[in-house]
Write a structure and sequence with these properties.
- By secondary structure, this protein is mainly alpha-helical.
- 50% of the residues lie in helices and 5% in strands.
- A hairpin with a 2-residue loop joins strand 3 and strand 4.
- Helix 5 packs across helix 9.
Length: 519
């Protein structure tokens, strides 16, 4: 266990798990095959670039093999402000952006600056058209040392403006937190590009450790383990939740062994390894609340419901509503009234165990320790199913797309942030970005973690034997029909976006969402 984080199963290898929750042979073969393929690619990239130093940004193309269509688009457009802003809405981590209600002190000198609309920045804040992405959670996090070379971490803050004609556009970035640290602006050329790279580097840390590992993998493990311990496998709720916990314990054990363990991927290839990743995880846990896990509440609290072209929001709400409708029908079939929910000791034990082991009885989280009504149970179960399927897909499925072009989201930075805009040249940027071994490992790791596998079970698919009741089968068929409609609509939109050479968002297409966290 890591003190100050959700508890996990105490197994050092997935082979010690009960056979009912282990990987199927087909899954193991798929993982082995793709692992061998990615490892061979990594070695080939390193060998082919021996004695060929990277001196300019285009040199990263020498390891940019077999990009996906979205990765190729990012490679073409990564320096543009439009794509930089779009990734806050529809990239790997579209959960940080929030409305700016008051200009941060770091940008006080810009308050009267005129924007494209003719209004000042302060006026547009009052008009609710200014947004902020703040990485203050990274303040004080220990930086890694890779092969004897110190790495650097910053806690940048970025201001964006929702321009009526151009859409979301970055206005200013501050990388450091002291009054003497410069504010970077679009006019600053290479310095502006490097400031955006620093933001993207911080985005990588917060995405992988907070949004992905903590809010998806670790919580799903608690949900699943509590279900195995508290819910009879013959009762409807147990039958349902066992399908949404498929492979979750096994994949998390594997991740702890290879990714976040001592001398794992984070230690060897990221700037936040060597203990900093644990500090960030614990810090993120203290900010985790029930409302951040419930999409409608989270969007409302961040003030982003009016943001246009926010496809994570649009697709996510369609899926939340579809899952909620399915859950409503399910709960109504199983429980006649609030009293039956309160008297179900197995259900109450499950919820209490999640509160105890998942949230460490932290009342400030707002996480319930018991459920007193059908309506409360419906919201809670919707959250669990959404987190274990759609939300994880949003955090996981785009990793190779977004991170394959290394300058777009580097895993570490080898120089501290610049103190003066005129100091920044392409050579300075190249000295800051990861060296080839780290960059190559990033690409293959992201490919491996984004790989869906050959044993994929999509959202809404339940084995025939799971439920035999006609009413329950009709409930599932209605759910699957709704998911197909959502899938078709998203595909039409993404086809249109691709035709315009715009960043599509396919990570929440129901046909691409797994029923559980299995990768």
């Amino acid at each position: 266990y890591l003190d100050g984080a959700p508890k996990s199963v105490q197994f050092t290898s997935f082979i010690w798990l009960p056979k009912t929750v282990q990987f199927h042979v087909k899954k193991l073969v798929g993982l082995g095959t793709v692992g061998t393929y990615t490892k061979s690619q990594e070695y080939m990239k390193i060998i082919r670039n021996l004695a060929r130093p990277f001196t300019k940004l285009d040199d990263f193309k020498r390891i940019f093999w077999d990009p996906s269509p979205i990765a190729a688009l990012i490679h073409r457009q990564w320096t543009t402000d439009e794509l930089f802003a779009a990734q806050f809405l529809n990239g790997c981590n579209p959960v940080l952006i929030k409305r700016c209600t008051e200009l941060p002190q770091a940008f006080s000198t810009l308050k009267d600056e005129t924007l494209g609309s003719g209004n000042s920045l302060n006026e547009e804040i009052k008009n609710q058209r200014v947004y902020v992405v703040d990485y203050s959670i990274l303040e004080g996090i220990r930086a890694n040392v890779i092969k004897g070379e110190p790495q650097y971490i910053a806690a940048p803050i970025c201001i964006l403006y929702d321009d009526p004609t151009k859409g979301l556009t970055p206005v200013a970035i501050k990388i450091g937190r002291t009054p003497d640290d410069p504010v970077f602006r679009p006019k600053d050329k290479y310095a502006w590009l490097l400031a955006k790279i620093w933001v993207r580097n911080s985005e990588f840390y917060v995405h992988e450790l907070s949004s992905h590992l903590l809010r998806a993998h670790l919580l799903a493990e608690v949900f699943a383990n509590a279900a195995y311990r508290c819910l009879p496998h013959t009762k409807p709720l147990g039958k349902l939740l066992f399908q949404h916990g498929r492979y979750t314990l096994a994949i998390n054990i594997n991740a702890r062994k290879t990714l976040i363990s001592e001398n794992g991927i984070f230690d060897e290839f990221t700037g936040v390894g060597g203990g900093g990743h644990y500090e960030l995880l614990v810090k993120a846990f203290t900010q985790l609340t029930y409302q951040t896990l419930c999409l409608p509440d989270d969007l409302e609290n961040r003030g982003v419901n009016d943001l246009k072209n926010y496809y994570y929001k649009e697709d996510g709400m369609q899926l939340w509503n579809a899952i909620n409708e399915f859950v409503n029908n399910f709960v109504d079939l199983v429980y006649k009234n609030d009293g039956e929910v309160k008297k179900d000791s197995n259900l109450q034990d499950w919820v209490n165990e999640i509160f105890h082991y998942g949230f460490l009885e932290r009342e400030a989280s707002g996480m319930p320790s018991s459920l007193e009504s059908k309506s409360a149970f419906k919201k809670y179960l919707t959250m669990v199913l959404f987190m274990c399927s759609a939300q994880h897909a949003a955090m996981n499925n785009g990793q190779f797309d977004i991170y394959a072009w290394v300058p777009n989201s580097p895993t570490t930075m080898r120089k501290p942030p610049p103190k003066y805009t005129e100091d920044v040249t392409e050579e300075f940027i190249m000295q800051t970005l990861p060296e080839i071994n780290v960059a190559s490992r990033l690409m293959v790791t992201m490919y491996l973690t984004s790989y869906p596998g050959d044993d994929f079970v999509k959202l809404g698919d339940y084995p025939e034997h799971t439920f035999v009741e006609p009413e329950m089968k009709r409930c599932i068929e209605q759910f699957k029909k709704k998911l197909r409609e959502i899938d078709e609509n998203i595909k039409v939109r993404n086809k249109m976006l691709c035709s315009l050479d715009k960043l599509p968002y396919n990570y929440m297409e129901p046909s691409q969402i797994e029923n559980s966290i299995a990768m």
